[in-house]
Every structure is written in structure tokens, then in C-alpha cells.
Amino acid sequence: MYAPTARTTASRSRDRMSYDRAAAHAVLDEAYHCVLGFTVDGEPRLLPTLHVRVGDTLYLHGSTGSRPLLAARGDAGLRVCVTVTLLDGLVYGRSQFHHSANYRSVVAHGVARLVTDEAEKREMLTALVEKVGVGRSADSRPPSRRELAETAVLALPLREVSVRSRTGGVRDEPGDYELPYWAGVVPLRLTAGLPEPDAGVTAPVPAYLRAADSPWRAAAALRGEHVLLEPLDLAHADELFAATAEPEVWAHLGHPPPSTPADMRAIVATALAAGQRGERVPWVQRCARTGAVVGTTSYHELDPERRSVAIGYTWLGRPWWRSGINTEAKLLLLTRAFDELGAVRVAWHTDIRNTRSQAAIERLGATREGVLRMHRQRPDGSWRDTVQYAMTIDEWPNAQVKLRERLHRAAPVG
């Protein structure tokens, strides 16, 4: 616990105040930025900046020419006040007076010192980079001596610290309960969007930037003798465009064939956006022998509660048809679904016109369950009847044996 002081003791709503060390650290660690307050020539200054906590020290990032860093050069340091706030929800009351917000905030007072030790500065910058993505410090160039010289760091010992928060629902006056107005809480949260690679980047999006709130939505790398499945990335788009150029590949898919690499990048971006929303888990398929990108496939219709998933959005370049690649890709996906995720049902949907796809799904050991009439629109605007197949956990052991026997007879491509 932090000891309360005159500056950290609340004058009102004391029930919202806390001095719990773990709670303060949790807020500081979750937030990405803070507000640094100080005075210059008797005038108040507030600067937003980046921060990271290392133990009981809060480090603040800045430029060597900024006012607070210049003021902190002296032996006396710089008296500061740092605030961090996480907004968790908007509270709508029946009266305007009782509109509020749910939040968690930290206020820290003290004397900040300028970090002059190069090792300490490097440790802080590494911790700051790791905060935005665990593993990022090893996945980026360390600062040069010139860059270190241009970067200033303030260190604030965490001693005079308070936590203030509001949680829960509406606190209306009893006399307002019968008013005909909606009241409640709208939760808020910071959510990462789809990573946007810089121009010229060919490296795939690293794992720490891929959203996955459960193993069901994680595109784990899957490896076989014929095919490698790895998380789909925009960097794969050009190779996918080249590998799937034949019109037959797109004959029964849900969008027209891409005519340019930019079209393929748009298709890949759509898949990645669906993955970011948790609606789909997209993989790229590589030939295990050559390493060439040959197609893509996905989980979709994910339902962890009912332990069900569908396999779809599958396209494979014409040269790799009737090879072991498609069979093994399905075996890898089925193994992950049934044996790793605990699924009890895996489904497939295909166009009723796509007899080749239906035959391939049946060879996997799936059961045809019926036809969904006028289920989707094709790219030409016509309505598609969809044939639905599924395999259950009871059918999986026998299907697995037969798929492995087929793969044993298949000759790898490449």
C-alpha cells in the first residue's frame, strides 16, 4: 500500500479512492500514455507523453530539448504530477446530473530525475518497446548512440500515489426511477485495428499483433509433409495472385477473380479484417517442398460454446489440384479442430454447381446434410443453393485413418 499524503487524500467521494500498490501498477501498465504536469516560471504546463513502469519507478519518454527535460537537469530534479486515466464506460442517468463515467485513474506526485546512465536508459527504452508488443525489442533495431543522445528519459519514484475509480451502474435519485428515459452503461474499451504495413514491408505481421482472444481464433502454424499452413498476411498477396491465376480456381467462389495484384490484396485485407473481428481464422497454404504459396483456407462460423467450426474460403492453385496438399491441409485443420480445440462438429458449405468440391469433401469422410436454398448470391447476382456437409467427433477416428492412408499414397508436389 502507498501511504496517503495531504495531496493524495480525497476531499470528497472518498469511497472511490485507493492506495493499493497492485491496483496502481495495473492501471499504469495497461495505459499507453500519461499526462505530465510541471511548472515553468510559475506557469503550469501539461504534456502528453509515453510511459512505462519498471518496478517502483515510472519512466517518461521525451526529447532532450523539451522544457521538462531541460528543467530536470539540475541536482534538485523536477517536481511533477503524473496522471493516467482509463475510461471504462459512459453512464447514462435518467437525470442529466447523474450522467457519469466508469474509470480507473492514477495520480503520482514526486521529484523526477533525468536519466543519465546509458544502461538504465537502454533498459527503459527496451521496456517501453516491449510494452507495445511482447517480443518487439528482439524484432526491431536497438537505438544507436546518436538516437540515445537525442532521447531524454525522466524517472519518477512511485511513492506518493493514489488510485481513483468508479465502477457499477446508474445512481439515479429514487424519485427518477419512473421517468420514461433509457438509463444504463455503455462499456468502452481500447481495441486494436487491423495492422497496416508500411510501404515496402514484406515481413508478415508478427504474432504479438494478431488478435486472438481464444485458441479457436488463433491461426496457429500447422506443418505437414505436403503443406504448411501459416497465418495469412498481406505480404502473401502477390504470390497468391500468381499462384491462382487460372479462371477455374475462381469458378465457384464468392467473389470475382482478381484481375490485378491490388485486387488480391483487397481480398486478403477482407479476410484479415474478418479475422480481426473474430469471425474467421485465415491461413495461407505453402507447398512443403518448395515453400511456394499455393492457396489459402480458413476456419469460419466459429462457435466455441457449441464446439463447432466450419472450414471454407479455400482456394488452391491449379497446378496443385489432385496432389496431397488439399488432403493434408484438411487433415491438419480437422486434427486441430477435433484433437486440440475439442470440437464436436466441423462443417463445409459449397455451391451446388461445384461438383468437384462436393466430391472432394465427401472423400474427406464428411456427410452430406442437405441443401440451403437461395443461401447466398454469386458474383454475377444469381442466387446460390448451398450444399452443407459436416463431420462429427464420432466420425473423426475412422475418417482420420482413411485420410492418412490416402496421404501415404499421394506424391508430394514440387
From TrEMBL:
Keywords: Transferase. SUPFAM superfamilies: Acyl-CoA N-acyltransferases (Nat), FMN-binding split barrel. Signal peptide: none annotated. The keyword Secreted does not apply. GO terms for molecular function: acyltransferase activity, transferring groups other than amino-acyl groups. Residues 224-394 form the N-acetyltransferase domain. The keyword Transferase applies. InterPro entries: Acyl_CoA_acyltransferase, GNAT_dom, Pyridox_Oxase-rel, Split_barrel_FMN-bd. This is Protein N-acetyltransferase, RimJ/RimL family. It comes from Micromonospora halophytica.
